[in-house]
Amino acid sequence: MPSAELFQEVDARLSEIKQLFTQLAGEPAVNATLEDTNRPRLGRVDLARLMLWCRELLEREVATDLFADPAFNILLTLYVSRAEGRDVSTSGACTASGVPTTTALRWINALARRGMVHKRSLPSDRRFTYLELSSETADALERFFDRILNRVAARPEA
């Protein structure tokens, strides 16, 4: 049986998500407290992590087969990993995609053909391939996150 700490963590994350969606809809947050206003603001990487967590939660709790978006999952994973200074192997990206490996590899190749993702092999061992975002894709994701964060930060007029 899950611990009380797990329930509290899930409840806290769901409250944050609810508040985020309420703000995105342009409605004043319900039950906003002084504590909420003292929370640190979300940054781009925080938002990307939250989106990954939300996608995983949606797929796990609602329907895996309806909400699969492997390309977006891969891009979000590469964005977060880039910010953390971690390499992402092709197999790691396949796992992060949330779809079978063959499907994930098709998406990785499609992203590479579009120049959104670059493949990098180790000179010492060509069996391992790492993926990284192109600068253009990283910039586009930052603009995407900034637009969301700006919308959240905007206060609806009374």
Brief overview, please?
This protein has helices at 4-24, 34-37, 44-61, 70-84, 90-97, 101-113, 135-153; strands spanning 88-89, 117-122, 125-133. By secondary structure, it is mainly α. β2 and β3 form a beta hairpin.
What would your notes on this structure say?
Strand 2 and strand 3 form a beta hairpin. It is built from seven helices and three strands. The protein is mainly alpha-helical. 62% of the residues lie in helices and 11% in strands. The longest helix has 21 residues. Strands 1-3-2 form a three-stranded antiparallel beta sheet.
Tell me, rounded to a whole number, the average pLDDT: 82
Task: Compute the number of helices.
Answer: 7
Strand order of the largest sheet: 1-3-2
Strand content: 5-15%
Rg (CA only): 18 Å
The end-to-end distance, rounded to whole angstroms, is 45 Å
Estimate percent helicity: 55-70%
Instruction: Return the structural class.
Output: mainly alpha
Unreliable residue stretches: 27-35
Report the count of strand segments.
3
